[in-house]
């Protein structure tokens, strides 16, 4: 089907050249970016369409999400009814698949119902990409915190795994830390 990337971007200006390098190396179908940080910086990349949801200026310089979709694959934006930082597209890569990119700021209170409602809006099969700021021993953290339990619950609520991943690699692009956090993830399905 293709390669899908997810990256906590932490700012368009500082990471644009790195993003271009990833695109040239992986030629992904979609890229989900979290913490784009700025609504006044255009994100135009040759061969890719973008769908963004930016944070309001002055909101502690954090947040924002974007999905970049390769022009080689027909795609359309899927409207989401949510207050969460999330955007979604449907892309045809041998089959029609929904891709949703989410950013949950670490100190925001997020209701389980809001997460469940978001996922309920996604036609199957879907791929959920994002930075959920949820720590759980299920994905390598030393401890499970409340947000991690919410994500565990969200995963258990999804009754059918619609897409089997043949290969998934994750890389921490920052200095090692005692807490496991995915900063970059590549999935080939």
Automatic annotation (TrEMBL):
Pfam families: Exo_endo_phos_2 (PF14529). One of its GO terms (molecular function) is catalytic activity. Residues 98-169 form the Endonuclease/exonuclease/phosphatase domain. SUPFAM superfamilies: DNase I-like. This is Endonuclease/exonuclease/phosphatase domain-containing protein. It comes from Araneus ventricosus.
């Amino acid at each position: 089907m293709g390669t899908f990337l997810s990256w906590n971007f932490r700012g368009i200006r500082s990471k644009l050249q790195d993003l271009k390098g990833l695109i040239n190396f992986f030629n992904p179908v979609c890229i989900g970016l979290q913490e784009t940080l700025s609504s006044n910086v255009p994100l135009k990349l040759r061969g890719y369409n973008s769908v963004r949801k930016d944070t309001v200026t002055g909101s502690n310089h954090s947040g924002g999400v974007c999905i970049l979709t390769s022009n080689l694959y027909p795609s359309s934006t899927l409207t989401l009814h949510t207050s969460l930082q999330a955007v979604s597209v449907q892309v045809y890569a041998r089959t029609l698949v929904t891709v949703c990119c989410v950013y949950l700021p670490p100190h925001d209170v997020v209701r389980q119902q809001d997460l469940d409602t978001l996922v309920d809006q996604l036609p199957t099969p879907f791929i959920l990409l994002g930075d959920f700021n949820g720590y759980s021993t299920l994905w390598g953290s030393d401890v499970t915190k409340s947000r991690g339990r919410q994500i565990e619950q969200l995963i258990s609520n999804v009754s059918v795994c619609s897409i089997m991943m043949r290969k998934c690699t994750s890389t921490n692009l920052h200095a090692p830390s005692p807490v496991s956090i995915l900063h970059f993830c590549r999935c080939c399905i």
